[in-house]
Amino acid sequence: MDKIVVLDFGSQYSHLICRRIREFSVYAELVPFDISNDKLKQMNPKGIIFSGGPSSVYNKDSPRPDSRVFGMNLPLLGICYGHQLIVDNFGGRVKRSNKEYGHSTLTIDNSASLLGGVGDSLRAWMSHGDEAEKIPDNFKVIGHTERSHAAAIANESESIYGIQFHPEVVHTENGIRILKNFVLDICKAKQEWTMEGFIEKTVSDISKIDGNVLCGVSGGIDSTVAALLIHKAIGNRLKCVFVDNGLLRLDEEHEIEKMFKENFAVNFSPINAKKRFVDGLKGITDPEKKRKIVGEEFVRIFTEFAEKNGPFKWLAQGTLYPDVIESGVSKGPAAVIKTHHNVGGLPDWMKLEVLEPLRELYKDEVRKVAAILGVPKRLLMRHPFPGPGLAVRIIGEVTENKLHISKLASKIVEEELELSGWYDKVWQAYAAVGDDKAVGVVGDERKYGNIVMVRVVESIDAMTADWTRLPHEILAKISNRITNEIDEVTWVSYVISSKPPATIEPQ
Ligand code: XMP
């Protein structure tokens, strides 16, 4: 299959470049910036893109690709830092400048090839400190802004291009058109990446494995789709286990069982382990300890299941592409802020091999696969939910009372967002609860009740997030319903912290 390779120089948008290209059905892969030239050649790309990144090309330790990449005779597009690398490599000069962040108007000086079909000017998203002062010989300026006289440059005969702005972000007008010009017209890549093709190839690959597969399903879209693909390939050699840990959303355990039983013919074993988890969490307040306890309990339950129902050769997981890639620059501190877990990893002696059928896919692609496989719309559109469940949405000890409050209040938040049409526009929406109390008046009596924290965020990939500016009427409705319908709650607050510095979950 034709592919475009994106070298990752550490921009927060690197994955977005691949996603955008895949949206028009060309396969794109993100690789570390220092990939060896041999490996790059083996990948046989139709073209190469350099992502942006936080470094400056004149710093001694700035990330540089293997220099042979410039001589591969392949079309090359540099974005932001990648643009500056191209300028620098071919003998131009990059200078430090004032930071330019936000929209600028790009005036098109030459609408051939890369900037074809975008008109005379466009609103372009800028996020840079350095800029090209002198462009290399054999290059010409094809677009400029008020601040950057060489915001887009080209060496047409060699098919090498550099742009200071970010075509991959939605804030750049016609950004997709620019990427299409590069990928389809300049690289001549064929549009061969379809989810139907992915399903066919994956099912065919999995059908060649021997032995039984154990798959922990959570009711989330990733593990469900992983299970369905494997089931298509090997039928009842797949066994799915669903652990009800009592930390799920209101009534979710019943919904998940019903969904599996009504829609899919997979071998599905629900395990009610509410008591084990809630007992295990008694008296524990430290967030990391809570995660560890939940993770370990999952492992014990899987182990018991495997002993009774095995032997199993494989453990299936719904790992996605962004979790697989190791950026060549740094994964940043985000990766270690909290110990995320899916099933927590199984003990060595189980010696299961890991099967990850979704490791090439982005979330939006998983949704497409799910739709093709007949996953009900409700699950397709359901917000992500953390593996340790309400254990990380409850601050302090997990108690029956706090579970009750968090489940009911979150249900109210979800219902009100669905009613007002906001549910599908936001990334996550829930109510957290801790031990703080506030006074309220019920009838003529004062009482101390819990404070609920409503959190609604927008995000593209959960790496960063912004709190949602919900209309006040919706917030008022949510607040009224929570205090009216949940006796234990006296105050409702709305969380207005973005990520960073906050995270999406409170723990
Ligand atoms: P944070 O809170 O780190 O969350 O901003 C980012 C995204 O990850 C989800 N999340 C988890 N998912 N296991 C998971 O499977 C975990 O331990 C976990 N912790 C957070 C969170 O809901 C958000 O979408």
Task: Tell me what the structure shows.
The chain has 507 residues and is α/β, with parallel strands linked by helices. Helix content is 32%, strand content 24%. It is built from 15 helices and 18 strands. The protein has helices at 14-23, 37-43, 81-89, 175-186, 195-206, 221-234, 252-263, 274-280, 287-309, 321-324, 334-337, 363-372, 377-381, 400-419, 472-485, and strands at residues 3-8, 27-32, 47-50, 76-79, 93-108, 121-134, 140-144, 152-155, 160-163, 213-216, 238-244, 267-272, 314-316, 353-355, 428-442, 445-458, 466-467, 489-494. The strands form 3 sheets. The protein has a 9-stranded mixed beta sheet, sandwiched between helices. Helix 1 (14-23) links the parallel strand 1 (3-8) and strand 2 (27-32). The longest helix has 23 residues, at 287-309. The chain binds xanthosine-5'-monophosphate (XMP).
Walk across the major sheet and give the strand order: 2-1-3-4-9-8-7-5-6
How would you characterize the largest beta sheet? Answer: 9 strands, mixed
Residue stretches low in confidence (pLDDT < 50, at least 5 long) are 326-341
Structural class: alpha/beta
Number of strands: 18
What's the overall geometry? globular
